[in-house]
Every structure is written in structure tokens, then in C-alpha cells.
């Protein structure tokens, strides 16, 4: 996208206007990501060595469950660990009740 033409791009609210922008060269389509057999084979060999097969790949990390709580734990929001744990248990019990 051309940064000088941002107003024209933001005003385009229909399919015809967007196709006109593409035809004029203001909006360029990204190239398709390469999905070659060589890349697949390279990844397969890495997996045979044990790469890309950890717990985070098979199960989501606990941070994904409550990102706000994770940030609060890192951001020194609560007074101590006990209060943070009580808050977590309270939230989990509320979500299970619903």
C-alpha cells in the first residue's frame, strides 16, 4: 500500500473501489507463501530429531488460558503470591459455574 494515498484507501468501502485501487497499483496483493516439498522434508527431518514436538506444540501453554492474569503476575499487580492465587481460583470457579 502506498502511504501517500492512505485517505483514498480508507475511503474505499466497496468491492468495485478496492478492485480499482488494485488496478491502479495502490493496493498490491501479497505473494502466496511457498509450500514446497523441500520445506516439508526439512521440517520432517527436524521432527525426527525431536524439534517442534514439545508440550507447547501438543498442548497450549497455560499463558494462553489467561493472558491478563499472566501479565498481572509479571506486572507486580498483587501484593503477594497468595492473593494472586486466590484471585485465580476465584475466577476459575466463576467460569466453571457459568
Description of the molecule:
This protein is mainly alpha-helical. The protein folds into 2 domains: 1-30, no CATH class; 37-97, no CATH class. It has helices spanning 6-11, 15-24, 37-48, 55-58, 62-65, 67-74, 81-97. The longest helix is centred in the C-terminal third of the chain and has 17 residues, at 81-97.
Topology:
Elements: H1 6-11, H2 15-24, H3 37-48, H4 55-58, H5 62-65, H6 67-74, H7 81-97
Organism: Microtus ochrogaster
Family: Belongs to the eukaryotic ribosomal protein eL19 family.
Keywords: Citrullination, Ribonucleoprotein, Ribosomal protein
Offer a concise description of the structure.
This protein is mainly α and 98 residues long. The protein has helices at residues 6-11, 15-24, 37-48, 55-58, 62-65, 67-74, 81-97. Keywords: Citrullination, Ribonucleoprotein, Ribosomal protein.
Essential attributes:
single chain, 98 residues, mainly alpha, 2 domains, 7 helices, flat, Large ribosomal subunit protein eL19, RNA binding
Shape: flat
Give the tally of structural domains. 2
Largest sheet: none
Instruction: Note the total helix count.
Output: 7
Share of helical residues: 55-70%
> Which percent band covers the strand fraction?
under 5%
Structural class: mainly alpha
Write down the secondary-structure element order. HHHHHHH
The residue ranges in which pLDDT falls below 50 over 5 or more consecutive positions are none
- DSSP strand count: 0
Could you tell me the mean pLDDT? 83
N-to-C CA distance: 45 Å
Amino acid at each position: 500500500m502506498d502511504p501517500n494515498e492512505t485517505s483514498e484507501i480508507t475511503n474505499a468501502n466497496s468491492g468495485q473501489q478496492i478492485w480499482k485501487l488494485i488496478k491502479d497499483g495502490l493496493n498490491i496483493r501479497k505473494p502466496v507463501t511457498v509450500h514446497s516439498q523441500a520445506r516439508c522434508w526439512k521440517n520432517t527431518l527436524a521432527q525426527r530429531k525431536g524439534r517442534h514436538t514439545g508440550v507447547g506444540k501438543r498442548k497450549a501453554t497455560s499463558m494462553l488460558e489467561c493472558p491478563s492474569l499472566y501479565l498481572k503476575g509479571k506486572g507486580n499487580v498483587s501484593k503477594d503470591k497468595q492473593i494472586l492465587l486466590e484471585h485465580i481460583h476465584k475466577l476459575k470457579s466463576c467460569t466453571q459455574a457459568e
